[in-house]
Design brief:
The protein is mainly α. Among the domains are: about 220 residues, no CATH class; about 100 residues, no CATH class. β1 and β2 form a beta hairpin.
Length: about 475
């Protein structure tokens, strides 16, 4: 494996897939140009009289483009980068496998890139493919939908941006008559064909640059889904362990055979009879067998006593009855005690769903072990050293750690600053919520707008630190 398989957050898995594409971007672009560009040339030739429909056809045929990059990424993930000729030989099979479903009823699937590996790489057909995709979608379907939504918006904005950025390079004859278009809505006479061809070309450029990353992101989600629900990382680890153990066992077997052969050769050289050698060894004092004979006196009347002994089975029955009476009494007493003292086992928050305490929020570690003992003093020292962002980060992380662990504010690891502020205002104490609102504004200003707060604001934040327990400890 050329990637590390472990359970990841969905955005981490998307980042992994994009990194795989970026690692072999040159090879993927070469394969894309050799397989997709010829198809686009055919489309342009066939639709040369209707250039306005070319972007729609190029968009509709996307499921065919995705297969060659997915083929390369799936091999590269296992340490094998297929060459140009090998990919060309696989090209017809890749394109015509599940050809009609991909362009008809599966074309508008919102988890297209996430489901494509299951449809193309697992060798399933028909209803088995649908069952497999539904199984995987139970874990990663929502992330696959969000991925398709995000990439569609990125592609559309990039297409409009490229057209807007290069519009000034067009000659006057290729520019539409915008006034006539908006007044008469006469598309045929107000938009020249050159403008439509230029828009189609911009769309092809954007698809070329973005679509491979969309495929890689879906493949990353697919790998993460199999790792999470099937323990794929554990399976591969066991396979590597088995390979190492097999190699070690083979080496041990060869060594044993080698030494056995040496011993056989040595005995053959000596020329002794094996049976005589064994008898000679058994005559050594260490192999002497010691026997001890003992006698025990048994009275003649022992059997008669056993025969005439009285039967005491009724005592066993009485003991069993007493045992079950005691057990039943204990159970009844325990039930009565629990019913009478049930108030001792009911807490105020018993009806609430327990909140899982996150350890990392927005990439920041908020565990108490990662923070200094005196957070305010550490923040002041960091501010004095000139690291303004880190100083506010200490205050912000310390506040989140207190609110999550002490106040049980339901903040999750996927929340943003705004989400955290909403939860604190809703569930936190008033003075702590007011302070956290002021701190959030200062943190967002420094972290994202890169505008440092004033020293007076920093002193106010440090002096107003409300997250202390009895005795003043942070």
């Amino acid at each position: 494996m050329t990637v590390t398989l472990r359970p990841r957050q969905p955005w981490e898995a998307v980042d992994l897939g994009c990194a795989m594409v970026l690692r072999d971007f040159g090879r993927i672009m070469a394969l894309w140009a050799s397989t997709v560009f010829p198809l686009w040339i055919v489309v342009c030739v066939l639709m040369r009289s209707m250039p306005v429909w070319i972007p729609l056809v190029v968009w509709w045929l996307k499921p065919l483009y995705d297969r060659v990059p997915l083929f390369f990424l799936s091999r590269a993930a296992f340490g094998e980068r297929p060459g140009f000729m090998e990919t060309w030989k696989e090209w017809p099979r890749l394109w015509f496998a599940n050809f009609l479903p991909a362009l008809l009823w599966r074309r508008l699937s919102f988890i297209r890139s996430f489901a494509l590996p299951a449809q193309m790489l697992e060798g399933l057909r028909g209803a088995a493919v649908n069952r497999r995709v539904r199984t995987l979608a139970m874990d990663g379907g929502g992330s696959g939908f969000s991925l398709s939504y995000a990439f569609s918006k990125i592609e559309f904005v990039a297409w409009i941006g490229l057209m807007w950025g290069t519009y000034g390079l067009l000659p006057d004859t290729a520019r539409p008559d915008w006034d006539g278009l908006f007044s008469a809505f006469d598309v045929e006479n107000t938009i020249p064909d050159a403008f439509l061809w230029w828009g189609a070309a911009c769309h092809m450029v954007i698809v070329t640059l973005i679509e491979p990353f969309y495929v890689g992101a879906g493949f990353g989600l697919y790998l993460n889904c199999r790792t999470r629900i099937e323990g794929w990382d554990v399976e591969l680890a066991f396979r590597r362990m088995a390979t190492r153990l097999t190699s070690a066992a083979a080496a041990l077997a060869v060594s044993l055979l080698f030494f056995a052969g040496m011993q056989t050769t040595a005995h053959a050289a000596v020329g002794d009879d094996p049976a005589k050698v064994v008898e000679k060894v058994k005559q050594h004092p260490d192999f002497e067998v010691h026997k001890v004979n003992s006698k025990r006196w048994v009275p003649d009347f022992e059997a008669d006593e056993k025969k005439d002994a009285p039967r005491l089975d009724f005592l066993d029955a009485i003991g069993e009855i007493i045992f079950w009476v005691i057990i039943t009494g204990l159970v009844v007493w325990l039930v009565v005690y629990l019913v009478n003292n049930r108030h001792l086992f009911i807490s105020r928050g018993a009806g609430k769903t327990p909140v899982k305490t996150p350890k990392v929020i927005m990439g920041m570690n908020i565990t108490r072990e990662s923070l200094p003992d005196d957070i305010v003093a550490a923040a002041r020292a960091t501010w004095a050293a000139g690291d303004f962002k880190e100083a506010l980060s200490l205050l912000y992380r310390g506040s989140l750690s207190w609110l999550v662990t002490r106040r049980q504010v339901p903040i999750t690891d996927g929340d943003t600053e705004e989400d955290c502020l909403v939860q604190v205002l809703k569930n936190g104490e008033k003075n702590e919520a007011t302070y956290f609102k002021q701190l959030t504004g200062a943190w967002v200003q420094v972290a994202y707008a890169v505008i440092p707060v004033t020293e007076a604001e920093m002193d106010a934040l440090c002096d107003g630190w409300p997250f202390v327990v009895k005795g003043g400890a942070a």
